[in-house]
Specification:
- The protein has 130 residues and is mainly β.
- The chain has one domain (11-128): Jelly Rolls, CATH 2.60.120.10.
- Helices cover 8% and strands 45% of the residues.
- The strands form three sheets. It has a five-stranded antiparallel β-sheet, with no helix packed on it.
- β1 (18-25) and β2 (28-35) form a beta hairpin.
- The radius of gyration is 14 Å and the shape is globular.
């Protein structure tokens, strides 16, 4: 058994959101993700792993190609392998608890709204051109 307190684990960075792995068990991991106001994630997917986000504090919007949903404390999203998604934080600090499991947890990045200097990796460009 592993026990973690999210408030004790929170860590923020003004330049980018922080993902900190708290536990790795049998091919999966549990992570705290801390967001400053207005930060966004890349529009990405995990081709071989599922991903669950639970909003512990704060909130924002989770977008997929099918929907945009408000995320607030107590809500969670489930992303099956290959589903492209991005998180746009709201105007307060946010803590998301994330679990990834399944195959390898590699991320494929399609775009990154709000990051003008971001460049897509060649391997991701090839992945999304299929």
């Amino acid at each position: 058994m592993q026990i973690h307190n999210l408030k004790d684990e929170e860590e923020y960075n003004a330049d980018h959101h922080v993902h900190k792995i708290l536990a790795e068990i049998e091919g999966g991991d549990a992570t705290i993700a801390c967001w400053e106001p207005g930060q966004t994630s890349p529009n990405h997917c995990h081709p071989n792993a599922s991903e669950i986000y639970f909003c512990f504090e704060g909130g924002g919007v989770m977008r997929t190609s099918e929907a945009s949903v408000e995320i607030k404390p107590g809500s969670f999203t489930f992303h099956p392998p290959g589903e492209i998604h991005e998180f746009l934080n709201g105007d307060t600090r946010t803590i998301l608890f994330r679990i990834r499991y399944g195959g390898d947890k590699i991320s494929r990045h399609k775009s990154w709204n709000g990051k003008s200097n971001w460049e897509q990796r060649l391997s991701d460009k090839a992945f999304f051109s299929c």
